[in-house]
Amino acid sequence: MKKGFLAFLIGLLLITGNITKAQVPALKVSDNKRYLSTKDGKPFFWLGDTGWLLFSKLTREEVETYLEDRRQKGFNVIQAMGLHTLNVVNIYGDSALVGGNIAKPKVTKGLDVADNEAYDFWDHVDFVIRTAEKKGIYIGFVPLWGGNVKDKKVTPERANIYATFLANRYKKYSNIIWLNGGDIQGSTGKKVWDVFGKTIRAIDKNHLITYHPRGRTSSSEWFHKDTWLDFNMVQSGHRTYAQDTSAKEKWHYGEDNWRYIQADYQLKPTKPVIDGEPSYEGIPYGLHDVNQPRWTDADVRRYGYWSVFAGAFGYTYGQNSVMQMHRPKYNDTSFGPQEYWYEGMAKPGSFQMKHLKALLLSKPFFERIPDQSLVIDNGQKYEYVVATHGKNYAFLYTYTGRTFKVNMGKIAGKTVKAQWFDPRTGNYQAIGDIENSGIKTFDAPLEPKDGNDWVLVLESK
């Protein structure tokens, strides 16, 4: 590490300070087992961002920049990898492990604040987590990316040592959420994933744990009944309807990520569920062919509203350049990023996600249920309208802005106030007072087309 960095190191450590008091409230599964809440019972809407390589590819100054940007845009969870590979080296040239052995985290001794030669990979991870904590952001911590297990580089015995190290080191932080797995089927190296889940749970009883699966699957397929799994996570993935052609896929839902949520919502025992990785803004359809069209802000909005209205407790957004922290002079990129991470942070979808969060938190949170009986004439694929309601409100989302019919009387009151909510801006357009009975037809603003999405908001008078 360069000596010139010492002054900045000491300054930021003085700002962030030691962890002596929780800066974010501890989380738990809500009493109805459908959502997350703080320990004192307040609703927690997970608005996540995928910053997978945050720990290894950003400097301390850049960590501050990234997390502050996300805080201002309403994000409260950042999903990040501990170890992308076993030979990972961070931006300062510090290795995470001794000789690529997961059972030997490379930890230096010394007073790290005063001696920057002692500032190691794990101190940098500490800094990221501490900085996030000060900003009210949780870290969805992936201990190990799945490819390392698939390649048989990790034994259950070594996994136990590493998981013990992580759990003991990070159980003191207030803002950890453990994401076991890492883009992989739970059946691939299942003994290792079981070790991670059970070991972390035995040591760290204060933080939630889930499993991040491969695309087009859910954690529930392998771990739903495991006691270490607090909630299910879906990766609905990056393929289009046309690309989702494998007859072997159990979860053969195409882009309909609401179907993954719907399937997990019906499982017993009841556990919350979230889409932790839908299509990223700016990534090619299907990932690998950079000549394919790119997913847009309209697409990430669609995945968000579809999944949340289908019963998810939150949503994770992603952007191609940001998720891999693509930067100048680095050639280790994937999926054809078209800008650097600091430019990708300003893509329109990242500004729009806060409106979903604000809408859901504007009404009684825990009473909300998905209810497709609200929609009389539903369509297929992009024409699908997804509906949810509480006792005195209902939300119905249309991606195309098409005309659709609503079965009234599902919420209280003889009359309801009707409005259109714009997912791009968070603004409302008044419709008027509507009799709360029979079947009513609603026509969204502007001409119907993909991306002319609106939320019909009905409220009891």
- What is the CATH architecture descriptor of the largest domain? Alpha-Beta Barrel
CA radius of gyration: 22 Å
What general form does the structure show? Answer: globular
Query: Uncertain regions: pLDDT < 50 for 5+ in a row?
Result: 1-22
Strand order of the largest sheet: 10-9-8-5-4-14
Q: Work out the helix count.
A: 13
Fraction of residues in helices? 25-40%
How many DSSP-defined strands? 22
Look at the structure and give the mean pLDDT: 93
- Major beta-sheet overview: 6 strands, parallel
Q: Structural class of the secondary structure composition?
A: alpha/beta
**Proportion of beta-strand residues:** 15-25%
CATH class of the largest domain: Alpha Beta
CATH homologous superfamily assignment of the largest domain:
Glycosidases
Q: Tell me the CATH topology of the largest domain.
A: TIM Barrel
> Termini, distance in Å?
63 Å
Overview of the structural elements:
The chain folds into two domains: 3-19 and 26-361, Glycosidases (TIM Barrel, Alpha-Beta Barrel); 371-460, Immunoglobulin-like (Sandwich). By secondary structure, it is an alpha/beta fold. It has helices at 6-16, 54-57, 60-72, 121-134, 147-150, 156-170, 190-203, 220-223, 257-265, 297-309, 320-323, 341-344, 348-361; strands spanning 27-29, 36-38, 43-44, 46-50, 77-83, 97-98, 101-105, 138-144, 176-181, 209-212, 217-218, 232-235, 273-275, 314-317, 369-370, 385-389, 393-398, 404-407, 415-421, 428-435, 439-442, 454-460. Helix 3 packs parallel to helix 4 (121-134) and helix 10 (297-309) runs parallel beside helix 13. Strand 6 (97-98) and strand 7 (101-105) form a beta hairpin. It contains 13 helices and 22 strands.
